Amino acid sequence: MGMKIDAQDFKVKMTPEAIGGKDGKRSFVGSAEQEKNLIVIDGTLEPSRQEEVLLHELIHISDSGIPEFMVKNISGRLYGFLKTNDLLRPGLIDRVSDGTLSKADMAKVSEESNELAEKMEEMGEIIPFNDAVSEGPWYGESGAYTEPDGRINRVGVHYAARDMVSGRLAHGARRSESRRLVQLYRDVLKEEPPIALIRLAQ
User: Fold this and answer.
1) What is the rounded CA–CA span in Å between residue 161 and residue 66?
2) Which of 40, 155, 162, 198 has the smallest CB count inside 10 Å?
């Protein structure tokens, strides 16, 4: 089936098993390869999660310059709005799916996932943080994310990552600060760091 995006025919392929393999570490659940006109979705996810991943990848295709954390926020909220208001027809994934990936392509996707997971684990030295997280709005300066009481502000971390990836911060130690932010995402916020931020940290 597939779908048309900007007059291009895209295929939507499902993975026959969890991305990363049985003993691997899943570092992503979907991907969009514009040069191949291909969207890949983890076929082991619940149908509603697959729909959200599809929406996530469509946003990436529409503008590859949007940071990962922003795409995640936009796709999650937009999917919630569409689902809550019954604006999605049932069977979306079944209608657009072009079947499953071949064994060779599945192995390649899992290898990429495991390599990314290993890089994320190997980043930098352990940096101690206060693991208390503030969920309120952020009014601090660009690049900052710590409340006066020492708590890490979730929105502040997101803004700092955005500023780092976009180059708004003329930071002398860009790589080490990117590593610090990646660790914050993983260890404190318990979120997936933006792919662009991970690349800066390598």
Assistant:
1) 12
2) 155
Report the C-alpha gap between 173 and 52 in whole angstroms.
36
In a domain, 126, yes or no: no
Q: How far is CA 145 from CA 53, 149, 167, 183, in A?
A: 28, 12, 17, 13
| 99, 43: one domain | yes
Q: Is the pTM of this model over 0.85?
A: no
Distance CA 136, CA 79 (A): 23
Together in a domain, 183 and 111: no
Q: Answer yes or no: do 81 and 44 share one domain.
A: yes
The three-state secondary structure class of 2 is: coil
Tokens for 76? 């999650």
**What is the rounded radius of gyration, in angstroms, for the C-alpha atoms of the chain?**
18
Q: How far apart are the first and last CA of the chain?
A: 38
Residues 19-68: tens digit of each pLDDT: 888 776 677 888 888 889 999 999 999 999 999 999 999 998 888 777 67
Residue 20 domain flag = yes
Cα angle: 160, vertex 63, 107; to 5 degrees: 90
User: In terms of domains, do 92 and 27 share one?
Assistant: yes
